[in-house]
Amino acid sequence: MNTILTNSRQMPFYTDLRLVFEALEDRQEEYNWLITDLVYSVGRVRSSQHDFRYRRSKYIYKNDYPTAALDSEVVWISGEELSKIVYGNAIQFIWGVLSGFKKSTKIDLNDLEAIPYADGNSEFWIDEPQIQHPQADVEIVCWDSTLMLLLSKDDDLTNKFRGTFTDARDLASENKRQNKQINYIREQMLTILWEANKEVTEETLIKHVYKLWHSKVKGKDIDIENTKGQDKVNEAIRRYILMARHLCF
After folding, report:
1. Which domain holds residue 123?
2. Number of folded domains in the chain?
3. According to the model, what pLDDT value does residue 200 have?
4. Do 123 and 44 belong together in one domain?
5. Residue 90 to residues 46, 164, 230, Cα–Cα distance (Å)
6. Is position 117 within any domain?
7. What are the residues whose beta carbons fall under 8 Å from the beta carbon of 105, sequence distance 6 or more?
């Protein structure tokens, strides 16, 4: 099962892996971790909601545990050492993919089957996203300080995470809902432009589809499966085209 967490007060900043590891009840220590596409910041993140005294963790440090092990383009690290780094610092994971492997799994860092990445990866938003490395069992994605994803073959990890982060949503269900919205907007926008004898390139069309979706539909309770939802979207499309036609189309 795959999960997305975004726009949640339960996560004071994205991504605070201390809260994630606590939610997993420290099961991250059962894995070795391949960390790629990483951007992080240490010592500048604070939260009024959490004082960083994590009660369940056996790790208690003074926010100064060495982080040099993270400073390679490709990082291979045990779950225990990763826990020490995460719990031992006020650290924000801005971008990054953490791929978890069973301890018995061996990989060749010089000849990886896949190099997981976050920045620019559109595969997270398809209907059924998959863990990027074929031998990994879990993948944690930190996305541009705005959201995080948990992709897992172990339902227990997912259930623990969702049990703590009640704002979390099923990623596949969310993607399918949003992709239906985007496809509907594309079809309706194309129809309206065709009726107005206006030609448009696919690149331009997609740009405007996503711009409209982000501004008028994303995050709103609009169900395009019913007439009321369709009417709302259709009116938004007409207004958008009327305002943008002479500028952009």
Report:
1. 2-167
2. 2
3. 84
4. yes
5. 7, 21, 46
6. yes
7. 32, 135
